[in-house]
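This follows on from our talk about sequence and fold. Please put the record directly below this note.
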Amino acid sequence: MNLTDYQAKYISYELTRRFPPDSVEKLTAALVDAQVDLNPHQIDAALFAFRSPLSKGALLADEVG
């Protein structure tokens, strides 16, 4: 695959872009490639965790199986 300089710069920007911890974009970026069926309570929990003033991020898990 041959990329132009513009395309390479854009891809680099997208891969290294950072969002404020309380933004919906941060959660959206994490879910872009997710292959799961999300429930509304899971989205609410993730947004709550990212908005916590004591947290610099979150590791979320749900039951499996």
Summary: The chain has a mean pLDDT of 77. The chain has one domain: 20-65. The two ends are 39 Å apart (CA to CA). The chain is about 50% helix and 0% strand.
